Amino acid sequence: MPRWIDETLHPDFQFRLRADAVLHDGRTDFQHVVIFENAEFGRVMMLDGVVQLTQRDEFIYHEMMAHVPLFAHGHAARVLIIGGGDGGVLREVLKHAGVAQATLCEIDAGVIELAKTYFPEISAGAFGDPRTTVVIADGTRFVADTSERYDVILVDSTDPIGPAKALFSAEFYRDCQRSLAAGGLLVAQNGIPFVQGDEFRQSMAHLRGIFADATAFLATTPTYVGGPMAFGWASDDGALRQVDLEKLQARFDAAGLVTRYYAPQIHTAAFALPRYVGDMIEPSS
Predict the structure, then answer these.
(1) What distance in Å separates the CA atoms of residue 11 and residue 26, rounded to the nearest whole number?
(2) Which of 15, 150, 156, 182 fits as disulfide partner to 83, beta carbons 3.0 to 4.6 Å?
């Protein structure tokens, strides 16, 4: 009999993936990790019963989290990634030649080691890049205490349960704002608005109360079920969200990146929100 593994994130519905071979099933210091093979999606990692990545569709999330803010900013040299222990966002960030320093702050060293062992192609050598600094620490404490200033901060967190819950708080977002250089930009994983509406509304209310310009953009990753995923966007420089398609295309062409999901046209279209999502951010009068 095949083993089926249920995702247990949502109280009113679940989905399951067949585990053709379980490669790891155990606990780190912070969470339960299961890694298994699935014929449709390849190798899968679940943390505390929630799908974090699969080999087949990881590129969508990682490309959009990294390239939308970096191409919008245009000259980011210092990037901070909170979470992201699998190394996928780090991999995409380092494709930008202008990035001189990428700091990855991950609370769970066990996730990094498991990702290096079972998903080496996800980080693709990024952990060994001389521009990379890895800090094993609580991301909320890191941004509260750091004196460094970053051009872009990317919050590649799990959902607001367990160790990641504080990464959706107003206090954390304020510390991120303080840790940004002038003209800096924050992008944060903000869940699936269709099925995580309360969490999305709350985090967006926090961002809008702190930053001069705050909204979200969307991308659809098949194994993040329930609709398109929202990436919270926040900056005190509203012009970053208004970069036109011609300029984005020029930056993309100059970078020489090969992508599978991101394109300048996708970049601009991702900010065109369905009405139900827009109403969660700014309710219609």
Answers:
(1) 23
(2) 156
